[in-house]
Amino acid sequence: MRRFGTLAAVALLASCSPKPKPPEPAPFNTAIPINEVMAHVMDPAADAFWGGMGTSYTVAGERDLSPTTEAEWKRVEDGAATVVLATNSLMVPGYQRAPIADWNRHAKGVADVALRAKAAVEKKDMVAMMEIGDELDRACEACHKQFSPAIAKPYVAPAGPTK
Ligand code: HEC
After folding, report:
1. Which of 13, 89, 131, 136 has the fewest beta carbons closer than 10 A?
2. Residue-wise pLDDT tens for the chain (163 aa)?
3. What are the φ/ψ torsions at residue 62 (nearest 5 degrees)?
């Protein structure tokens, strides 16, 4: 009798519990087209990292670009961290391009390098930063070669109007 009561209670509970709803898709915002995501997020972030190393040569002379203040080091590290996070955006449905497995692999490739870039900046390891800087460039280009061959090639100015 007691056993029957328990079973009845379980059956009653089961019939009352609401059916699990499929999870709502996250409201990802993909209003900014991918070329602008590159121009306004990915490229400036990578530039902030790349800008923290090397030498600039201008008419005013040579200048070592290594960060000298904590604020400058932070800007360089911010760049590397932003690249890592920006790769997540590339893998949002709406930005992904087919074949998606290749697209995601390239995005992950950039994230892995940018994470190492961030760690090198944290250690203020200029030698590692220079090496990783080159690797980052190659990781970006790997995706461009497959998904946007036009920009992966050296830039050639379009022919002007003929007349
Ligand atoms: C998963 C693929 C992928 C990765 C990774 C990627 N890009 Fe891109 N990028 C693209 C695509 C696709 C375009 C061309 C967009 C289009 O079709 O208009 C592009 C375009 C660009 C452009 C040209 C934007 C314009 O004004 O038209 C720049 C600059 C750029 N990417 C920089 C970078 C940098 C820097 C990185 C690495 C830190 C990077 N991209 C990583 C896919 C990628």
Report:
1. 13
2. 455 555 555 555 555 677 888 999 899 999 999 999 999 999 999 999 999 988 888 888 998 989 999 999 999 999 999 999 999 999 999 999 999 999 999 999 999 999 999 999 999 999 999 999 999 999 999 999 999 988 876 555 666 665 5
3. -90, 145
pTM of the predicted protein model: 0.84
| 19 alpha carbon – ligand 1 mean position (Å) | 43
Q: Is 45 in the pocket of ligand 1 (CB under 6 A)?
A: no
Tokens of 108: 């992950």
Ligand 1 centroid–CA 90 distance in Å is: 10
- Considering only CA atoms, which residue is closest to atom 16 of ligand 1? 35
* Ligand 1 atom 31 nearest Cα: 38
